[in-house]
Amino acid sequence: MTDMTEQNAAMKPPVAKREPQRREFHGDIFEDDYEWMRNKESAEVQDYVAAQNKYCEARMSHLAGLRHTLFEELKAHVEETDMSVPTRINDYWYFTRTQQGKQYGVQCRMPVRGADDWDPPVVDPQGAPGSMPGEQVVFDANVESEGHDFFRLGGMDLSHDGRWVLYGVDVSGDERYDFRIRDLDATLEHGRPVELPELFAGIGGACFTPDGKWVFWTEVDDSWRPCAIWRHQVGTPVESDVCVYREADERFWVGAGISFDERSIVIGTGSKTSTEVLMLPVATPEGEFQAFIPRKEDVEYDVSFACFEGAGENGEDVPLAVVYHNANNPNFEIDVIDMRAHKPPYRLGEGVCVAAGSPYGCERGDMGRPITEAYFNPLNPAILQGAHGLGIEGIALHRYFVTLSYRSDGQPHVAYTTKQAAAADFLAGRPWRFTELLPPPLENDWDMVAADRSDSTGDHGERLWTDDTAADAGYSGTEGGAADDSVAVPQDHTSSFDGASDDHLPGETRRLYSIGTGGNPSYDAPRMRYSFASYTRPGELHEIDPATGRDTLLKRATVLGDFDPRDYMERRVWITARDGERIPVSLVWRRDFPSQDSPMFITGYGAYEISSDPGFSVARLSMLDRGVLYAVPHIRGGGELGRAWYEQGRRLNKKHTFEDFVDATRALQTAHLADPRRTVANGGSAGGLLMGAVANMAPECFAGIEADVPFVDALTSILNPDLPLTVTEWDEWGDPLHDPRVYEYMKSYTPYENVPVPVVESAADAAEIEDATGATAVAEAVSASKNAADFPRIFITTSMNDTRVLYVEPLKWLARLQSAGVDAVAKIEVEAGHGGLSGRYKQWEEVSYENAWCLAVMHITR
Length: 862
Known about the structure:
One of its GO terms (molecular function) is serine-type endopeptidase activity. The chain is α+β, with helices and mostly antiparallel strands and 862 residues long. The protein has a domain at 1-11 and 21-75 and 562-756 and 791-858: Alpha/Beta hydrolase fold, catalytic domain (Rossmann fold). It has 17 helices and 43 strands. A hairpin with a 5-residue loop joins strand 33 (528-534) and strand 34 (540-544). The protein is globular, with a radius of gyration of 28 Å. It starts with a helix and ends in a 5-residue tail after the last helix.
């Protein structure tokens, strides 16, 4: 065979053999030609994977230069040698160092300078791990990963005195971790740390008791379900461990941990819709766990314990149980129980309600009212009154402050109050006086709203599209509760909304940000840390004194080069879906590129009540700097607007997820913001199912589809209760095994069953199709529209060790797509799992690989 012949052969996709297997449920018969690929260990499957990777390599070879350029651009923006801000845990300050050329971070620590030391030490970020006086390396993943193609740290727990560390690693990507116990106070002669002989192999997770004398670890069954909790006494054989809890209901997962006040060992068990908490005092680790409140179907709750120090009538502490639940309110409420009143057991709904979410639009709420209608509740703090799509997400009580997390207007929010004020409000029986935490604005930024501006657009006159388009539309208006800066668009597809709760507050930031109170592991810390980031503003870590409101910047993520966040714009618009629901869409673009028929990268998820919140990405800059419009439709099935938003995009409402994404895409294209010939969609896992579904529903909207670890053979998987995750997934997707309606509904949208038919234009085509797929397919193709010819190009990523979406799903989908004549390629990782490759440089190479394909589909090749 000549070199040219070999090259031409490499540019044709491998032909997968057809070996029909019959799948019959509820009177429906489906012939699955590629189910044989489920045998991962077979030589045929391994050869097929190798052939597909070779084909992908050949198809992608012309993008090598662009991939290299994107990788170098990403790398040039990153401070490769850096460190995190030290966080105090007990008697040490912990921080992570990254070093140029190293794949993984290095965990380090330094001892505190005294009991009242709450100011992080000054550490040289350019120094080597262990270079500062008193600095100790706790865990160096670069050393631990030697000899492994894949490496992931799966958890780390420390004894209270800091001597013992319990850690788990995964070296294959299958999310089964081997845990060991290391002595941080001792090393062997050759410098290796001293480890105890215990090995907890292939488990889901583990935790220490504070004294480091007991380990509680999670067993994983053959379906990868965390199913049981075992007790281990440190220093004894693992074989003598005792099972303290086993979950019989296959819908439930279990896990163990230590309560925030370190007084209780906690077992949490839960399905997608129900939870239960069992507790045991750490003082009696060999005792029996007791349920705080017995489980109830379709009720989720969590509990924590705290106190109001010295708030009693005689200066005594007031012990509290803080219960987070949805027994009475589908969008959750927080009840605080004064434990002086009576001893356990308690019931859900007991105590004083501190915050309650909006029941509007929820299945177990008020379905007759719109999700986005303003919600008022006399029990709620003033800052929650009139919120839209209000969902309560949690509360944390520390010694000096209290934080409240919630969602409103489709975005995350945080509020705070002092512990003293909370105690006074609680004992007086009035709503708590929270203050909303707003990120400080960037100096001279476009998101600063001047007090004397009448139009309050905040964008210095920039528009999302031309005035001619607006005039043609003849529409201008605002969405309820939004700022008066709406943009006219054709056919009233969208209206503008920039995410701020009140645009008339001078100096308020109006970027689309995410905000959270991570980095507060200590109950005794006098100040509260919080972090935030937007699509265009790099992450910042701040510390605020709740008593004075003084805000201190601890660290801003460094973006090297000529990056300036003021060069980029971000806005929230709302489009009208086909059923009349209003869907929020986040848009990001570079200010000096007009958003007019732009190439567009549009991405979504829309499942499991997971919200696609704003976040900064260095890799995204390369797209924005090339004029790409970045769009995120916050489609139903996610949690952006609370529980009702989730309920409207799951089970027998799942198609809303796909329709919302298509309708958002079409609206942006109709408004001439984006060009359908240069639009690429992206989604992963459940978002990969979304990608397959929208490609089938509206192929004309997309030039390309990138589907990462896609859940595209969902019906086959959900029908098999022996596969990983299946039974737990019935709460999300429905149960097609026992319910014919669910079966029929899922079959109507799952990508694998709905791929386009092959194109038949000639007798030669018919002969080729018959060779590959059989005579029946030829007849179907002749009578069907030639939709395969108009199908978008497909790029698939998957991993052979993925335990969440098995590799066989995208592999089968790929075979059907290619047999139909769709231009589809797949990059298949042999040593990785659901999260892809490990190591930061490998991940940068991976995202550069994927983005190069996306840009090429948009006709951007440099």
